[in-house]
Amino acid sequence: MTSSTVRRTASGSAGTSTTGRSARATRPGYRCAECGWTTAKWAGRCGECQAWGSVTEDAGPGGGAPRTSVVAPTRNPARPIAEIDVEASRARPTGVDELDRVLGGGLVPGAVVLLAGEPGVGKSTLLLDVASRVARGTEGPAAGGGPAGRRVLYVTGEESAGQVRLRAERIGALDPGLLLAAETDLGTVLGHIEHVAPDLLVLDSVQTIASAAVEGTAGGVSQVREVAAALIAAAKERDLPVVLVGHVTKDGSVAGPRTLEHLVDVVCQFEGDRHSRLRLLRATKNRFGPTDEVGCFDLSESGIVGLADPSGLFVSHERHHVPGTCVTVTLEGRRPLATEIQALVAPSMLANPRRTTSGVDASRLAMVLAVLQRRVGARLADQDVYVSTVGGARVVEPSADLALALATASSRENVALPRGLVALGEVGLAGELRPVTGVLRRLSEAARLGFARAVVPAGSIEPGTAPAGIELLEVADLAEAVRATGVAGDRRT
Q: Which one, 167, 204, 361, 393, has the greatest CB density within 10 A?
């Protein structure tokens, strides 16, 4: 082999290597729209979050970041942190106290809030009421009035302008400062923002807006990303608070790409049963406040009203004291709520007795019934058991186990529990009672509502720290709790 042949061979191999590197560099990558997982080959199921159909081709050569030239910061140069003005970034009340409680004081200028909830839960009604209050200037402290003449832009993509106007008339939300636009094009929405220069933007909903510059239908992954990015950029540039309405999927999560939750500043969930007037607002993400606050609302035909003291909705006011009822205090975030649990035990004619629940976890009821029968001696194997909460409340935390057990035992023996009694505690499989968190907060709420006695696990609080006006009955196990309340004795065989 001559030297020229060697040079040609080396040149050819080098060219082949360069071509291979170029091919690898231009090979498309794939990214999961839900969690951002990347892969070199397409897959029908994400290898990280296990979502089906979420892996799409990533834009850009090989999924790599584009090169960006260096630009000198002339508009917003870096400054010492002590010189940053914070007054313009403080939260401004919306006029709805329960919403302000969840947001951490109100809406922050430039913040983007995503409000998600099932269809018909009352999202549009709540935001229409908030928009009218801001436009009317009644969002100041103690409803004394805020800055007058504020402009609010309400963009609806799901309903016609006439439908929104009828709802606003029904709930008393008509105000000259509230401007309404029915649009589904992103460019037109941005044009409305330029023309109106609002102090608040409400978009209902983000899944109905589409951009002509991006392929795909409204609500798709690429469209939702583009719409959210454009509105976030406009919010930050203008210090404009933006509230986006979002749909939820069957499992209750926000519809669309999961990255949308990471882009916005606040994510709120609006929950409620269709057959109940109670609505709960929770913050699952909040860059400006806590995420353990819960707002309570009462939804009716005339509008939506915040409930500063919702405990009365979950406690019945019967004149006759009947067996099978017991009150407990649950914690929704940091807010204590008194909830009444009702139980009905009746002889069964079926081979497999019924266990029916409403507002109570069926698996926890089954566990409590097993403990009652094995550790206390209550005969329940041939009895139908029906358990429900008052007012459509949902009780899912273990602190309600003791109240559930006492209500069932009371109905089984047909003996009413003492008046003014509240029960707190988790029931173990051995029949022992375990302390729960926030006992002092729960007992303070019970004392405020007029309860005189409380059954709690032994060692729940320090001696002498109980709220004034409430007597503690500290018990170690479920059998002792049943005897202390006078329902029945220990009849184990």
A: 393
Is 124 among the annotated ligand-binding positions? yes
**Claim to verify: residue 120 and residue 226 sit in the same structural domain:** yes
Domain that holds residue 188: 89-308
Domain count, the chain: 2
Distance of alpha carbon 81 from alpha carbon 88, whole angstroms:
15
**Is 119 annotated as ligand-binding?**
yes
Residue 60 in marked binding region: no
Rounded Cα distance between 218 and 208, Å, is: 5
358 labelled ligand-binding: no
Q: Is 250 annotated as a binding residue?
A: no
d(CA 282, CA 111): 17
Residue 79 CB partners (closer than 8 Å, separation 6+): none
185: β partners = 210
Mean confidence (pLDDT) of the chain: 85
Task: Express each pLDDT in 305-344 by its tens digit.
Answer: 998 888 777 887 665 679 999 999 999 888 899 999 999 9
95 is in an annotated binding site: no
Whose tokens are 């191999």? That residue is 13
Boundary-marking domain end, from 279, 308, 337: 308
Q: 66 pLDDT exceeds 80?
A: no
Asked whether residue 123 is marked as a ligand-binding residue, the answer is yes
Token reading at 471: 């007597």
Nearest to 107 by CA among 296, 266, 304, 271: 266
The token pair at 26 is 């231009």
How does pLDDT run across 244-258, given as a tens digit for each residue?
A: 998 876 666 665 656
Handedness of CA 42, 47, 49, 53 (dihedral sign): positive
Residues 172 and 290 in one domain: yes
Whether this prediction's pTM lies above 0.85 is answered by: no
Band of residue 49 on the pLDDT scale cut at 50, 70, 90: confident
Find the CATH number of the domain harbouring 424: 3.30.230.10
Identify whether residues 180 and 162 lie together within a single domain: yes
Q: Of 359-363, 390-394, 396-400, 417-421, which gets the smallest average pLDDT?
A: 390-394
Among residues 286, 280, 272, which one has the least CA distance to residue 337?
Answer: 280
Residues 200 and 291 occupy one common structural domain: yes
pLDDT at 140: 46
